[in-house]
Write a structure and sequence with these properties.
Elements: H1 12-73, H2 80-89, E1 101-107, E2 113-119, E3 127-132, H3 146-151, E4 155-159, H4 176-193, E5 197-203, H5 205-212, E6 222-226, H6 232-242, H7 249-260, H8 269-272, E7 280-285, H9 294-302, E8 307-312, H10 320-339
Parallel strand pairs: 3-4, 3-5, 5-6, 6-7, 7-8
Antiparallel strand pairs: 1-2, 2-4
Helix pairs in contact: 1-7, 4-5
Length: about 350
């Protein structure tokens, strides 16, 4: 019955115990509130830390991806003087200084200015070849092929591909924009020199460019493609896999589209060769680990016209001319021209 007694009738000890008990409950309640507040506060701190970590990781990843994209689209390229020195040191300069030359500029894709040199054959001829250099090089990187074509009776046109040599800085696509430039250069060559016979020769990126322009059906008689790739995206996929970063390539391609305006999958000599009837001579170093010889095999299978493939033993990337020497390299091209009845 005590439980129903008014507190007035409780004993002093009972009241004291009750007060102590209430104080305990109050303290427990206060502690619970503070604990709950601390947990809530800690959760906010943890969430904040996680958000910061995620944002930092995203920022680092984006910077990494953009860095990879910029290495392709805006690379550091060789200077004219450095390229001249390299060609001379490796014995490729040959008789270049003895030839008469004309220098001029040509408006390429979207009026992009290309710096061009005509190297005149000492014997008058109506045969011309446009030689496209490789990645990070410039028109002097094409000099190694000049003596070969001079000995075959050609005038040689060498030029700086976009973003290289004396040209203004620009986005590099390794074939898409460059093939548009080359098409303009082909048109200019006919306008400038009249009724001529014209072939193309390219090394690496220059080979890809010389093959990709065939999709536009230019008026050319042949192409010599030395160590070209079949598709830029596939090439990088293989390279990134070796470096254990293959999973980032789709992100790099997105960066290319958003920042530089092109899809690497469309830099595709293989696709450009579908339906092509222009004769093509493919040359590739067997020891090329940068662009594997399989790329030229794929390109050869894609073209519809006459083609040859010459795989050079012991030749690394863009070293076939060096390994074979000028005379043997010239022999490959000379026999090819005979096979297509080029006079």
């Amino acid at each position: 019955m005590d439980r129903v007694k008014p507190i007035l009738f409780y004993s002093e000890n009972r009241i004291k115990n009750l007060i102590d008990t209430n104080e305990m409950f109050i303290l427990l309640a206060i502690n619970f509130v503070f604990i709950e507040s601390d947990i809530y506060f800690m959760k906010k701190i943890i969430i904040g830390i996680v958000i910061v970590i995620v944002l930092v990781a995203i920022g680092w990843y984006c910077r990494f991806i953009l860095g990879l994209a910029s290495q392709i689209a805006t690379p550091e390229v060789s200077t004219l003087d450095n390229e001249i020195s390299w060609e001379k040191e490796h014995g490729f300069w040959g008789n270049y200084d003895s030839y008469e030359k004309d220098e001029y500029t040509v408006k390429g894709y979207k009026d992009y200015e290309l710096h061009v040199t005509l190297v005149k054959n000492p014997v008058e001829t109506d045969k011309y070849v446009i030689i496209s250099h490789g990645f990070k090089s410039n028109r002097y990187g094409a000099v190694k092929y000049v003596d070969t074509y001079m000995n075959l009776g050609f005038n040689c046109i060498i030029y700086d591909l976009r973003d290289h040599g004396e040209n203004a800085k620009a986005t590099l696509s390794l074939g898409q924009f460059e093939s548009e430039d080359l098409y303009k250069l082909i048109e200019d060559t006919y306008n400038r020199y009249g009724n001529i016979k014209l072939g193309l020769h390219g090394e690496s990126m220059g080979a890809a460019t010389s093959l990709m322009v065939l999709a536009k059906k230019p008026n050319v008689d042949f192409v010599v493609a030395d160590c070209g790739f079949s598709n830029l995206y596939d090439l990088l996929h293989a390279a990134y896999d070796v470096a254990k970063v293959g999973a980032v390539l789709p992100s790099v391609n997105i960066a290319m589209k958003l920042r530089y305006g092109y899809d690497m999958k469309k830099t595709s000599p293989r696709d450009a060769l579908i339906g092509n009837e222009v004769p093509v001579c493919f040359i590739h170093g067997e020891a090329d680990t940068f662009i594997l010889p399989e790329n030229s095999e794929i390109n050869k299978a894609a073209t519809a016209g006459y083609s040859e493939l010459h795989v050079v033993p012991d030749a690394a990337h863009a070293r076939s001319r060096e390994v074979l020497g000028e005379a043997e390299y010239r022999s490959i091209i000379s026999n090819f021209l005979d096979n297509i009845d080029f006079n």
